[in-house]
Write a structure and sequence with these properties.
Oligomer: single chain
Strand order of the largest sheet: 5-4-7-6
Largest sheet: 4 strands, antiparallel
Helix content: 40-55%
Order of helices and strands: HEEHHHHHHEEHHHEHHEEEHE
Distance between the termini: 20 Å
CATH superfamily of the largest domain: Porin chaperone SurA, peptide-binding domain
Shape: elongated
CATH architecture of the largest domain: Orthogonal Bundle
């Protein structure tokens, strides 16, 4: 929790920490080059975001740690302005793209989140896109200021030792257990908008007719283009998804009977007409792997872009960079506090 609180201001792009507030009791005032107030309502809002992440209430000490992080954020932004550290538009575009990449990974999109998707995501979290951009710019400003004051902050080795990698693997083996996995293509007939039995019967017959064409020698790819009603996969050979047997969310979403049926198929096999909660599918298995513990040399499914060893190396290097950055940031803020006027209103922190 202490680490989460320390990094909260720098890492959370969806909480407008420095947004203008109505008249409110001050939690603290900060002055390096100008006086700024951190209001109780702002602290409460930020604490709420942290509590949602931690799924519990913050303790009194944790609230004070959070307030200290907010004070540090103000100090370093004022110092950056004083020392003419300005984020370029190229840096901003790069920061947005990186955020879209990360969100695409979190959402399992297999691609970056689009501009429209990002704006919708920001809006769904109750934040204006302008406030999101300001927070992103503030974060980049802090990074640039730290890099200016501590030029070697990111100069850490990009390769972890074999022993460190092995130790991490041994300590986290459960993270590298892969459940039964299957990747499928499909030809899809959508029934979600069909309310009458006649319409659903017609859809079932349509799916049966497509299967007859397939058995008659038509290619799967041609039938995908000709008939499939899944626009996301229609122009990708019908590639539907990769599923893991323990994926409870997709099992519920698609229906247990459909989910169990596709796992009974063999690699290269084509199904009969299968019914899910969404409609009718003719499924073809492109890849199927049995459950097992991945070794260091195995590529990580389903993307298969990196081995377990490469992924662990990347994680360890990223952690070292984060630790180096955190240490440098703490040193800079400690020095700025010596130059600043800071007043904390303890009586206003009990709510």
């Amino acid at each position: 929790m202490k680490r989460i609180i320390f990094c909260a201001v720098m890492a959370c792009a969806l909480v407008p920490f420095l947004a203008a507030q109505a008249l409110d009791k001050p939690a603290a005032t900060v002055r390096l080059t100008k006086t700024e107030s951190i209001t109780v309502s702002l602290l409460q809002k930020t604490a709420g975001a942290m509590e949602a992440q931690a799924k519990r209430s913050l303790t009194s000490d944790e609230r004070k740690q959070l307030l200290d992080a907010l004070i540090g954020n103000i100090l370093i932004l004022q110092a950056a302005a004083r020392d003419n550290v300005v984020v370029s538009e190229v840096e901003m575009k790069t920061a947005v793209v990186e955020y879209q990449r990360q969100m695409g990974q979190l959402a399992n999109l297999g691609r970056n989140m689009s501009d429209a998707e990002l704006q919708q995501y920001v809006k769904s979290n109750g934040v204006t896109y302008e406030a999101f951009q300001k927070q992103l710019r503030d974060q980049q400003t802090v990074i640039d200021y730290v890099r200016k004051k501590k030029p070697g902050v990111f100069d850490v080795s990009h390769t972890a030792s074999d022993q460190d990698i092995q130790d991490y693997y041994d300590a986290n083996k459960s993270n590298f257990f892969m459940n039964d996995m299957i990747t499928v293509k499909h030809i899809f007939v959508d029934t979600r908008q069909l309310t009458s039995k006649d319409d659903r019967d017609k859809a079932a017959k349509h799916a049966d007719d497509i299967l007859k064409e397939l058995k008659g020698g038509a290619s799967f790819a041609d039938l995908v283009m000709k008939y499939s009603e899944d626009n996301k996969s229609k122009y990708n050979g019908g590639l539907f998804n990769t599923f893991f047997r323990n994926d409870a969310q997709n099992r519920q979403f698609l229906g247990a009977a459909f989910f169990d049926s596709i796992f009974k198929l063999k690699k290269g096999e084509t199904s009969a007409v299968l019914q899910s909660n969404l409609g009718f599918h003719i499924v073809q298995v492109t890849e199927k792997l049995d459950a097992r513990l991945l070794t260091l040399s195995d590529k990580i499914p389903p993307q298969n872009q990196a081995t377990v060893k490469e992924a662990i190396n990347s994680s360890l290097v990223t952690q070292r960079q984060a630790d180096s950055y955190k240490s440098a940031l703490a040193d800079i803020i400690a020095e700025l506090k010596k130059q600043a006027e800071i007043k904390v209103f303890d009586d206003n922190l009990n709510w």
